[in-house]
Amino acid sequence: MTGAAPLAELDDLRVQFGAGPDAVQAVRGVSLHVMPGEVLCLLGESGSGKSVSMRALLRLLPPQARVTGGVQVEGQEVGRLSGRALRALRGGTAAMVFQEPMTALDPVYTVGQQIAESVQQHRGGTRAAARARALEVLDLVRVPDAARRLDAYPHELSGGLRQRVVIAMALACRPRLLLADEPTTALDATVQIQILVLLRGLQRELGMGMVLVTHDLGVAAEVSDRVAVMYAGQIVEQGPVRDVLRRPVHPYTRGLLASVVRADGVEAPGIPGSPPDLRRPPPGCAFAARCPAAVGACSAAVPAEQKVGPGRTARCVRVGESVAA
Amino acid sequence: MPDRGGPAQPMLIAAGLRKHFPIPGGGAVRAVDGVSFSVAKGETLGVVGESGCGKSTLARLLLHLVRPDAGELVFDGEAVGAPRGITLKELRRQAQMVFQDSASSLNPRMPARDSVAFGPRVLGRGPAQAAAEADEALRRVGLDPMQFGPRYPHELSGGQKQRVNIARALALQPRLVILDEAVSALDKSVEAQVLSLLARLKRELGLTYVFISHDLAVVRHVSDRVLVMYLGSVAESGPADDVFARPLHPYTRVLLASRLSMDPDRRVEQAPIVGDPPSPANPPSGCRFRTRCPHAEPVCADRVPSPGSWDGHQAACHMVHPGSGHSAAALAA
Lengths: 325, 333
Hints:
The complex is a heterodimer of chains A (325) and B (333). Chain A has 325 residues and is of the alpha/beta class. Helices cover 33% and strands 22% of the residues of chain A.
């Protein structure tokens, strides 16, 4: 594979739940790509469409979701995959780490059985070989005393160990794309940093591309190469993590950064109001109603995605001015 | 409410609070195991710790929502539940609580105004008076009573629901408000709004807060003093500035070092600690942190470190107590 071909790509993805006037437009035209070996972070608050966008990459959306737009992983159009090819994609080419390790694991099977099952599904081979691979990946994610833990049930493990097991399961078939949906949100601070350092290390070591969904700017700063900031079903700003966190262009990103409660005791103002109802999204910029810089043009039409620097885009009609400012 | 004990009398004193939850088949989860502290009038005491450290059980003990196995509570100079002390009913009027899950703390079949008016109604106000007090409380939290009063919880956003919960607590004109992870479930931009609101209410109404959270940055931001908990006991306590600038307990240092950097050029290269906290059903002997502590010595397994006095900056660690038998303590002394 050449460096120029993206590992995964969304092209004008739109996802709608339900039908008629009360249909929720959860994703409203998202385009993004992830290169091999790159970590892209989808950053946004609840309801921004970040998880839905990521799940679309594996066609994991419920049947009532109406999906349009292009979804490609390694050049294959995911929407057109047959059952067999889809199974090869899920857990083979691409694997997913979920937020809640307790619900992501089956309580009635040992962790060894669960990892081995996935290995046999994708790679075939004997049960013994699959079990050996399970042990190997438990070691890889630094589960202490891995040989003994192979026969443990999920309830016998702590929260941090369970999340390591979920990551081991995702890595078992050597995916080239790792998707992680708020992988540390349910964990305590001292465990969260362990898992983030582990994920970052493994991603580099194994050269995987990774898409990480988070609401936490700190998590994005710890692991990502690039960030896509989502609001009301759209990407409002996208670019290298340093640039976006240091010199945010979009007023929403700025508000989000200003909402971080800092140790210095300076009052964090937050952003007044709340996101729009996605059953009736506004015709213009979705953030206009909360935006301190809004002008008449903001409500007229959805601002186009504009280039605002090397590898950077933003959807804001005043973007030229704010870059100059 | 009259300030009975005077300004020097702490709003709340907790002494030796203990709560063990029995496990069917033997043993007990030692959720809170001998916790003592005091909260001065008008201050915010932050309680910080990871899941299983007992901070939520502690919150419930303070209002006797869970009855303590042992220990004493003194509210503004009056012992809680004692013959000549303050009654539980009166305590639960003067001290109110706001919970983490804004949705499940509201009755889904009750409009916001009725939820907020419920407390005043229970205290004997007539329907019109209670509704008027509810509207006043809604206004205080920044919700227009005409617009939001008739709304049901499902018609409110997460931030609005939590405002209603705060209004409900305020409707009883409490003096002490216990906030148990009250902003943890909110999005960051909304969290900042609610924190500003809480700061304003405290100023306007002269409230005292016990602010419980797992989020160090938030606790640092709101607290005058902090209590760091680990496995059911207090590891460290003191003025927030001191504790965050000069942490004494190794656990506090680990917690601080686990914070995310917010700067891609200063990423945390190595996690400061490995593994998870042990189970509170079977805590280690001696110092509870010793199994994960880089400085643990035999004395740490043998003896429970003294938490020190309640005032000033204290840590329950043998290293800071001269003569404890820990090699670092000898050096310190």
